[in-house]
Amino acid sequence: MSTAPGRLTVDIVIVNWNAGHHLGNCLRSIARADQSVLHVGKVVVVDNASSDGSDWNLHVTGLPLRWVRNTENHGFARACNQGAALCDSEFLLFLNPDTELCPDTLRITGEALRTPGAAGFGIFGAHMVDEQGRPQVSCSRFPNPRIYVGRMTGLDRLAPALFPTHHMRPEEVPRSGPVDQVIGAFFLVRRPLFTELNGFDDGYFLYLEEVDFALRARRLSWPSYYIKEARVHHVGQVSSVQLGPWRHYLLLCSRTRYMFRHWPKYQAWLITALSLSVEPVARMVGAALRGQRVELRATLAVHREFLRWLRRDHELGPPSAPPAAARLRQTATSQRARPAHARNARKARQ
């Protein structure tokens, strides 16, 4: 497909896992977007074995759409790399299926990419907003021990100056500029940089793969830039919330991989020890105070599976689905659904 002279080109990669109607909304927003400055070469949707029908018979007029359908869930990072391997434009945009571009998002992004100052940056992000246009998390700090200790203990709320949060509050980034990391919901990368870094590290199944990528890019003198004027509607956690207790298990595994790859070993081991002691205790106390028995059992199961992963995988590779956590997820779901089923049964008998 030919492009007008002077227009930049971007290929978009979307990894889908049970995103429901949001995937269609995302694709239609791309088709509606102003591409006068930043032209979409192709859109690659990598479906990670969805079971909700979100990938069925979905066609968007005028969108150069290509599908990759995996027979099993390969994880987010690996699926992103699958999609990127089919792309050839000068920029790659990794876009979550629960996002919708505003009509001017691509135009504003393209205008920012054309400025002389953009030449020194390798990764670009946009301003996330909710349905009412209210600011959402768009940027994050690179994790360090204080961030994780604060998160485990609640000290990030009591003493945020000493224990800052990982995600930056919207008021902390009031304007466009350099940041440690832009969130992965809208993650625009120069293709040569993506190639140089060999893509995302597929040792991460879910979480922190974009943080790892941004840190490796920074070390090659390719920092990240936040474009405040480019707005993206982001629902958030549409897919990950379906994982139930397994979501925290995956976060623990990704967090541990990140620490041992990028921190001094003594710091990584310290936070790992706290992850197996202080953190589960704090989570169980909170669950007990709320009267959440299922959450109590889930916390025990998740941390037990995490310990097993640590013991069996000395390379800290991508985790497989933990059976205990999966069973607890099913238990929690059935317990929440039981009252509705009971009511339906009573109505049927009447």
From TrEMBL:
Biased composition (Basic residues): 338-350
Coiled coil feature spans: none
Ranges of residues in domain Glycosyltransferase 2-like: 12-120
InterPro entries referenced in this protein's UniProt entry, alphabetically: Glyco_trans_2-like, Nucleotide-diphossugar_trans
CDD domains in the record: GT_2_like_c
Region spans: Disordered: 317-350
Family annotation (Pfam families): Glycos_transf_2 (PF00535)
Top-level division of the source organism's lineage: Bacteria
Name under which the protein is recorded: Glycosyltransferase 2-like domain-containing protein
Species this protein is from: Streptomyces plumbiresistens
